[in-house]
Amino acid sequence: MAWEGSTRRQRLPKDWPRIRRRIIRRDGGVCVARYSDGRRCELPGTDVDHIAPGDDHRDENLQLLCPWHHGHKSGSEGGTAAALVRVRIHRPRSTHPALED
Predict the structure, then answer these.
(1) Tens of pLDDT along the chain (101 residues)?
(2) Angle at 28 (CA atoms; ends 72, 68), nearest 5 degrees
(3) Which of 16, 17, 25, 28 maximizes the CB count within 10 A of its CB?
């Protein structure tokens, strides 16, 4: 489950259902993601997404996405966040034993 272990739901404003309905109406109930050729996705939008991650719940920072585009975007953001805290181990470069003198 996507919400498991997350505090995201508790951080949503109390009027989130009203905000969500407003964004769905504004975006016409259709995903607003664009393909590389500029076409707009035509799948039904079910997920109200924060454009910039965080707790900015203003309409300008919200968009309607289909489950596929939302999952793709969220997965990318999660990978980026994980990379920022990942511990990097620097090991000396080894050479092949045949190349050592």
Answers:
(1) 455 667 778 889 999 999 999 999 999 999 999 999 999 999 999 999 999 988 999 999 999 999 999 999 988 876 565 666 677 777 777 777 777 76
(2) 15
(3) 16
How are beta strands 62-65 and 47-50 bridged, if at all? Answer: antiparallel
Residue with structure tokens 């993601």? 33
Spatial separation of the C-alpha atoms in residues 56 and 58, rounded to whole Å: 6
Token pair 């500029």 is at which residue? 38
Quote the CA–CA distance of 42 and 33 in Å, as a whole number.
9
In whole angstroms, how far apart are CA 53 and each of 10, 76, 86, 96, 101? Answer: 16, 11, 19, 45, 53
Cα 50 to Cα 33, 39, 56, 69: the distances in Å are 13, 21, 7, 13
